[in-house]
Write a structure and sequence with these properties.
20 helices, 56% helix, 430 residues, two-stranded antiparallel sheet, Serine Threonine Protein Phosphatase 5, Tetratricopeptide repeat, 8 strands, mainly alpha, single chain, 7% strand
Length: 430
Amino acid sequence: MSGQADIWDLERPVTWLSGIADWRARLFRRFSWWAAVFGDGSLQPLHHGCLSSANLGRSPAADASVRFRSTKPFVFLYAAVLAGATSSPRCGGGCSIGLAGVIATRVFSWAHGRWAMQLLFGGAIVAMLLVSSTPAVAQTPAFKQQWTYCLNWGGAYSQDLAVGGCTAIIQSGQETQTDLAIALINRGNVYAAQGDNARAIADYDKAIRLNPKDADAFYNRGNAHSAQGDNARAIADYDQAIGLNPQDVDAFYNRGIAHGAQGDNARAIADYDQAIRLNPQNADAFYNRGNAYSAQGNYARAIADYDQVILLNPQDAEAFNTRCWTRALWGRQLDLALADCNSSLRIRSNDPHTLDTRGLVYLRSGAFHAALADYDAALRRDAKLISSLYGRGIARLRLAQIGEAQADIAAARAKDPNVAIMFSQFGVKP
């Protein structure tokens, strides 16, 4: 990019972080741990911990990936700033972007290239990429404002303005195929942020026809297919994205999630291996690989991966809880499991799911009064925890509180007829 790049003032600073808050919850729900009930497609809130096909006694194909940390977000083709750019770590020679363009500022110019940046939302890593080629603003000055809307939505401009700007560009017939693809991808991103994945996919389809070498279009379409639960198509798109960009850590990561959703933990692990190779600081990849090992019943390797997560983020309460849960399932290292649950509760006090996990540790340790206290506390905070209700019944049974025990067990079975089978897989029977 030359120092003569076209520059204009925006009407207000680009506070785009707040603009993605509305869809952040959908893409960044780390704590979405659910168990599919024996392949019937229904979902029940059984436990916050690491439930796997091996633990639940059902086929791997029924083991939905909903307990994995969420798919990385859609790549936003965002207007970048500033002459004096730096080389991009995400694309080949000639790619550059000014770092100051990421800061809220009033002076914007087009930059040629793609730069990956990472933000943290509730622990999930956000990877956003900037425009991969310069839209032809200089050639079509009438569309400068439309490009501004199309590329800078999320804070500076609304989603409606973005859709209108992108649509005007798409319908103009005055842009290059590459630039039309950029406009289509951006409009698709807005639709995806609005939860309209069908329209997003339609735009990504058109963008890919115009520019079949754009890895990000395949990546984003894969995310949209994943959001629809179409993991086969998601995997096919991530395959294409990786073929075009073998260094795309997020594509490997997301493909791992999709493979896990299909019950193919071996392929999921292979993808997480690649994500970790490309970014050894990727705590989420270690975490999900640990989940995949746990689903295979390989608790020792799962715990080793959770160890890495905690080394990378010593304040990760969920990782402590999951390591506690895995040790409880394994039935070994129960003293270390108790220490893990206690560490999690120090970080995230009175969390009902961690109290539920610790209740299982106490059950398996024979500390029935302590188990009863934890299950009571968990149910006070979340009355829908079926595992806590059933676990409390077991604890009461062990304490000879027969009437109350039978009531809890019957209530839990009424909510989930298979809960007893689940607990038998945990090594706990009435």
